[in-house]
Specification:
202 residues; alpha/beta; Glutaredoxin; 2 domains; two-stranded antiparallel sheet; 5 helices; 9 strands; globular
């Protein structure tokens, strides 16, 4: 190898390393700035949330418009869910109980409208905090709501007895008084801490 090429090789490597280090430093500074910004000052998740309309067990329409003026939680699942859904709803109920009369509406929206009618949803949520409202509707209305909240849901293969499961994302959405998405709310902490966090949005 000519001497010029031998001298340029280390310089090229050094230059590349410096470029990579600079990019990483900028990324870390940006991430740190984001984490130090309060949730209320962060950019809204504009792609999550929006117009929806479903029915509760009494046949009443619950929509983004009827909830305006109050913060609320949203969780998607189904009544035949063996463990994840009831566990999350139990955690949410513990948090709402700590809020007392300040408990905010919590929508439990089915991803399985074929089996989960509004009446079935109402009966199911009766085992949890009264602030939890079960919602369902037509297949089209439920699918539209899933798209509004960017929820993944897919029907599993039917068993010989006709039973089936639903694969779905498990996220508790916190929406503010205007119906805008705030964050994926962490319910895996002490109910007292989570309740205090929710009260900030009242």
């Amino acid at each position: 190898m000519p001497e010029a090429e031998a001298n340029n090789a280390p310089r090229s490597r050094t230059f590349a390393i410096r470029i990579i280090a600079t990019v990483l430093a900028v990324a870390l500074v940006g991430f740190a700035a984001f984490m130090l910004t309060s949730p209320s000052e962060r950019p809204r998740g504009a792609l999550i949330g929006g117009a929806f309309a479903l029915q509760d067990g009494a046949g009443k329409t619950v929509s983004d418009q009827t909830l305006k003026g109050k913060p609320f939680l949203v969780y998607f699942g189904y009544t035949h869910c063996p463990d994840v859904c009831p566990t999350e709803l139990a955690r949410i109920s513990d948090i709402l109980e700590k809020m007392g009369d300040k408990a905010i509406p919590t929508l439990f929206i089915t991803v399985d409208p074929e089996r989960d009618t509004p009446k079935v949803m109402q009966e199911y949520v009766s085992s949890f905090n009264p602030a939890v409202v079960g919602l369902s509707g037509s297949q089209q209305a439920v699918e539209a709501t899933e798209k509004t909240f960017r929820v993944y849901a897919r029907k599993g293969q039917k068993q010989p007895d006709g039973d089936y499961s639903m694969d779905h994302s498990s996220i508790v959405y916190l929406m503010d008084k205007t119906g805008a998405f705030v964050e994926a709310f962490n319910v895996e902490r002490s109910p007292e801490d989570a309740a205090k966090d929710l009260e900030k949005y009242l």
